[in-house]
User: Fold these one by one.
Assistant:
Number 1:
Amino acid sequence: MSRLANKEANHSFGLKEKRMPYTIVSEICEGAEDCIPVCPVDCIVWPAEEKKNAKGFKYPYIDMDTCIDCGACLAACPIEGAILDEGKPELQLV
Ligand code: SF4
Ligand code: SF4
């Protein structure tokens, strides 16, 4: 009974919340790659041509159409500010 109630509560919550893709801030990223293996939908990818930011690091980007807003990448990233929990495509240099 309580499990069902929880399920319904989660469902309602899901309907109310709008999904928001995450962003890798290319100029802050240090290419540590910790984010890539934890993404459950494999939407953190490298640019077709390898590029480096002003700090000299290569950086992946998040496919915002595929991101499911789970937060795993942000939890795994060791660089403060490299991942934002909102969609800011202008900060992803791809
Ligand atoms: S976003 Fe964070 S974990 Fe992912 S490559 Fe950049 S620095 Fe590494
Ligand atoms: S929030 Fe989740 S789905 Fe989106 S890029 Fe990060 S790990 Fe992948």
Number 2:
Amino acid sequence: MTQNNALDSQWLIVSDLDGTLLDHYDYSHAPVDSLLRQLELQRVPVILNTSKTSAEIRELRRELHNHHPFISENGSAIFIPAGYFAEKPVNARESDGHWVIEPGFTRDRLLDYLRGDAQQFGAPYLSFATASTDDIVAATGLSAAQAQSAQQRSYSEPLLWRGSDEEREAFCRRAADAGLKTLQGGRFLHLLGPTDKGAATRTLLECYRRDRGIEYRLIAAGDSANDLDMLEVADIAVIVRAPDRAPPEIAATPQRRVLKSTEFGPAGWKEVIQPLFPSD
Ligand SMILES: [Mg+2]
């Protein structure tokens, strides 16, 4: 089967979920369903790469009929279905039918850090660890069951910031000094280990290249600042417009095309990506 017509290469698509493949408000993916089926037929893997947890992503992968590797909690863990590649990557452990590579830190380590930081500097934020499911439902619009999946975090802690911008900047500086990373998503400030969506994308891309013995080229799609690391490693960076804020800025280079949607969320994803993969 030819891979695609508009793009003369073997392509991988790596995509953010909230506000990108899923609607910012109602989390619908209906606008992309037929295109996702088409990409599957054209053998273009779509890799979900999100701040969400593996529990949340597994549920969505079932809905989206997606059987490919995925990246959880902003690059903290890479889940590869066992047997997807001929060999298990050397640095992966096996867990629950997946080969898991973990560039991130454990959540316990992050919560220890937060406790220490709060004792000295206070905690002007709502953390998932201390929030009730009702608090998370109110902050996100998720259902109670979805909010519970969102609370099953292994490698990162989302903070709903309630303090000033100055306090947030100081918090981020202290975290960086402690070897941690902070990323601003659509709703939350995420605290995590020394990784990001781009670093994890590179690691997974290398797994594909090694396994298949061919060069892959990469399309990355996102709508927020925490997607920039992922957009920067792509050959084609797709900026999906969000209804509630300005899109992240990334410059085109001789190696990188930048395409911006005019429509929001999944409609924007389809608008930009569909013309790259004509279905004949
Ligand atoms: Mg997003």
